[in-house]
UniProtKB/TrEMBL annotation:
<keyword id="KW-0051">Antiviral defense</keyword>
<keyword id="KW-0460">Magnesium</keyword>
<dbReference type="InterPro" id="IPR019199">
    <property type="entry name" value="Virulence_VapD/CRISPR_Cas2"/>
</dbReference>
<dbReference type="GO" id="GO:0051607">
    <property type="term" value="P:defense response to virus"/>
</dbReference>
<keyword id="KW-0479">Metal-binding</keyword>
<dbReference type="GO" id="GO:0016787">
    <property type="term" value="F:hydrolase activity"/>
</dbReference>
<dbReference type="GO" id="GO:0004521">
    <property type="term" value="F:RNA endonuclease activity"/>
</dbReference>
<dbReference type="GO" id="GO:0043571">
    <property type="term" value="P:maintenance of CRISPR repeat elements"/>
</dbReference>
<dbReference type="InterPro" id="IPR021127">
    <property type="entry name" value="CRISPR_associated_Cas2"/>
</dbReference>
<dbReference type="Pfam" id="PF09827">
    <property type="entry name" value="CRISPR_Cas2"/>
</dbReference>
<keyword id="KW-0255">Endonuclease</keyword>
<dbReference type="GO" id="GO:0046872">
    <property type="term" value="F:metal ion binding"/>
</dbReference>
<comment type="similarity">
    <text>Belongs to the CRISPR-associated endoribonuclease Cas2 protein family.</text>
</comment>
<comment type="subunit">
    <text>Homodimer, forms a heterotetramer with a Cas1 homodimer.</text>
</comment>
<protein>
    <recommendedName>
        <fullName>CRISPR-associated endoribonuclease Cas2</fullName>
        <ecNumber>3.1.-.-</ecNumber>
    </recommendedName>
</protein>
<feature type="binding site">
    <location>
        <position position="16"/>
    </location>
    <ligand>
        <name>Mg(2+)</name>
    </ligand>
</feature>
<keyword id="KW-0378">Hydrolase</keyword>
Length: 109
């Protein structure tokens, strides 16, 4: 099936984890490092995103995130289409900011 902006997905993982104790901070850092190892990039301090070429690929990465969920705190996982992501408006102060680059897709015929 041909890739298009309605089938290509973005996964957003947003979290609010406790950081009061040294153990909490270690759990926070481990979770953050693990999602980055899986290809997620920081969008904001507690929001990470990853580009996926299909629903099946997104499901693999969502399962990986669920497998490493910390014992406490709040974690949200949201999937949106590339089309929806492209309609987002970003601002830094009052200046409009460009969206993050979409990774290049390799299409085999």
């Amino acid at each position: 099936m041909r890739l298009n902006e309605y089938r290509v997905l973005w996964i957003l993982v947003f979290f609010d984890l406790p950081t009061e104790t040294k153990k909490d901070r270690k759990i926070y850092a481990t979770f953050r490092k693990n999602i980055m190892k899986d290809g997620f990039a920081m969008f904001q301090f507690s929001i990470y995103l990853r580009h996926c070429s299909s629903r099946e690929n997104a499901d693999v990465h969502i399962k990986r995130v669920k497998k490493i969920l910390p014992p406490q705190g709040h974690v949200g996982i949201m999937t949106i289409t590339d089309k929806q992501f492209g309609m987002m408006e970003l601002y830094y102060g009052r200046e409009e900011k460009a969206l993050p680059d979409t990774p290049q897709q390799l299409e085999l015929f």
